[in-house]
Write a structure and sequence with these properties.
Order of helices and strands: EEEEHEHEHEHHHEHEH
Helix content: 25-40%
Strand content: 15-25%
Shape: globular
Radius of gyration: 18 Å
Low-confidence stretches: none
Mean pLDDT: 94
Structural class: alpha/beta
Distance between the termini: 34 Å
Largest sheet: 9 strands, mixed
Strand order of the largest sheet: 1-2-3-5-4-6-7-8-9
Length: 302
């Protein structure tokens, strides 16, 4: 059962206009866990845009993107997955959650929450968010999706120097941090929010495989889950995104076997950006990338 817990008056620090309403609220997931979401609402909205964020990235990171879409007539919804940001407990030690919970419970609850507005819903996924789409139990609610920086996670797809750095992280630094803290103390490496132990273990395990969890023999059902999505899907990867090179994307997106898939390799300079890398798709200056998303959404609504 899904339900809303409470509403606060303000969602982060934003410019507020008469036609905009920004609410920070908590909702229950189907397994009765509370997560924090933020609603960015506009009068006479065309549609809903659900933002499925990246691993270890709090929802406040997407606030500039949400404002931009509000100004173009879309409601926007963000979330903190359990264990992250405002959905984190006082301590992550012994906090039990895994990657599948983030998609099948947390993101699914947000998708269900948006149905009350009686509008079509689009999904924008960043990194892990492009994985979560295919895992959604209510995937039929997503009219189309635009995802950025999504790949398989296998270090073999990365440039040589980045591959070395990532392997040092997985095999030396991360185990030390986990042993010290009882969870993946990601913030100690200045790489984002701390991660629950279950998320870290699954992520590390799946990153052993060139096609991520599609190669995991314990998950034979995952190909069928991803094949359910038959709508428009645009996957964009920056050529300077060291964690999600186009080759990594192509390996992963074979799983979206039924989608109307379009892939794009983008160059930062073409979007008036000095760099994009893995996080710049949602920097406050990335409006030309966001315009591409708006084109997709408006075309799907016409």
């Amino acid at each position: 059962m899904y339900s809303t817990v409470y509403t606060s008056t303000k969602c982060f620090e934003h410019r507020s206009l008469d036609y905009m309403q920004k609410n920070k609220i908590q909702i229950f997931t189907q397994d009765q866990h509370k997560i924090s979401i933020c609603e960015y609402l506009v009068q006479d909205a065309k549609a809903n845009v659900i933002v499925a964020g990246a691993t270890g990235v709090a929802q406040r990171f997407y606030r500039h993107f949400a404002d931009y879409l509000n100004n173009n007539g879309f409601n926007v919804f963000t979330l903190d997955y359990r264990g992250i940001g405002d959905s984190a407990p006082d301590s992550l030690k012994s906090f039990e959650v895994d990657y599948l919970d983030w998609a099948k419970q947390d993101l699914a609850a947000l998708v269900e929450h948006t149905k009350q507005y009686n509008l079509p819903s689009f999904l924008v996924g960043h990194s892990y968010g492009g994985h979560a789409l295919g895992l959604l139990p209510n995937i039929e609610e997503i009219k189309a999706a635009y995802v950025c920086g999504v790949g398989s996670g296998w270090s073999g797809w990365m440039p040589t120097l980045e591959r070395i750095k990532v392997n040092v992280m997985w095999h030396f630094l991360a185990p030390i941090l986990v042993r010290l803290y009882g969870f993946m103390a990601w913030s100690r490496l200045n790489m984002g929010e701390d991660l629950p132990l279950g998320v870290y273990k699954q992520w590390k395990h799946w990153c052993k495989y060139p096609h991520y969890f599609f190669d995991d023999p314990t998950m034979p059902e995952v190909a069928g889950l991803f094949a359910r999505f038959k709508n428009r899907l645009v996957a964009v990867n920056a050529l300077d995104d060291k964690w999600a090179q186009p080759s990594s994307r192509d390996a992963f997106f074979k799983g979206y076997s039924s989608a109307k898939l379009q892939v794009k390799d983008i160059i930062p300079e073409n979007y008036k950006l000095k760099s994009i890398d893995h996080m710049g798709y949602f920097s406050k200056n990335a409006t030309l990338i966001w315009d591409d998303m708006l084109t997709l959404f408006n075309n799907e609504l016409s």
